[in-house]
Specification:
Elements lengths: L1 H4 L2 H21 L8 H28 L5 H27 L16 H19 L6 H28 L9 H21 L9
Family: Belongs to the KIF-binding protein family.
Pfam families: KBP_C
Organism: Fasciolopsis buskii
């Protein structure tokens, strides 16, 4: 019965994106990320975006079923969270292709003008994914929002470092940068309230 209440386009879109994820994963698997660095970067970013879209669709189904069978709701919450973590891992793999050494943080290296936006977006989208993980207790929410805060700070940090060397870069006008800066100010307040046991609104 629960399946009937889900809008068919959502289910169809999930299946379509699942096929794309499978295809991207198959293409990426045999590629040497050092020898085919640019191709791998493009594929990893696309994989992360597709997984993020699937997460959003699972979240939408979860929300539509919020008043239905609890087991079904839990199922879609679990699926959404799994996809969020996979997307974060894909963004991490994307960022790892920019590090000069395995231990070097992307925050301390310089990026070309055509690299800075996707690097900033990878941090930004990772932050959003962390903040949207469905949780049932405040400890998990604090942990996820703390990770989100770290990613937002990384997004701001890489851009500010870039602007020191390229003060006229158009990245300074990016909407995502403005949002990231706002979240760097907002999330510590949210985390403090959560730590005190006070209710807080949903973080988008």
């Amino acid at each position: 019965m629960w399946y009937a209440v889900i809008r068919f386009p959502l289910v169809f879109q999930c299946r379509m994106h699942k096929r794309r994820v499978d295809m991207l994963t198959r293409v990426l698997k045999p590629l040497n990320r050092q020898h085919y660095q640019l191709v791998c970067r493009q594929l990893l970013f696309e994989l992360a975006e597709t997984l993020s879209t699937m997460r959003d669709l699972k979240q939408e189904i979860h929300d539509e079923l919020s008043n239905e069978n609890s087991k079904t709701t839990i199922h879609y919450a679990r699926k959404a969270n799994q996809l969020a973590k996979r997307a974060v891992n894909a963004f991490d793999d994307f960022l790892a292709t920019f590090a000069r050494t395995p231990s070097q943080s992307t925050k301390v290296r310089k990026f070309a003008e055509d690299e800075i936006r996707p690097v900033m977006l990878a941090h930004f989208y990772s932050a959003r994914l962390h903040s949207r993980i469905i949780t049932v207790n405040s400890n998990d929410q604090i942990r996820n929002l703390s990770r989100a805060l770290g990613s937002y700070r990384s997004a701001v940090s890489v851009v500010e470092n870039h602007l020191q060397h390229h003060p006229r870069s158009s990245i300074q006008n990016a909407e995502e940068l403005s949002i990231a800066r706002d979240m760097c100010n907002l999330l510590p307040i949210k985390l403090s309230r959560l730590a005190r046991g006070e209710p807080v609104g949903t973080i988008k």
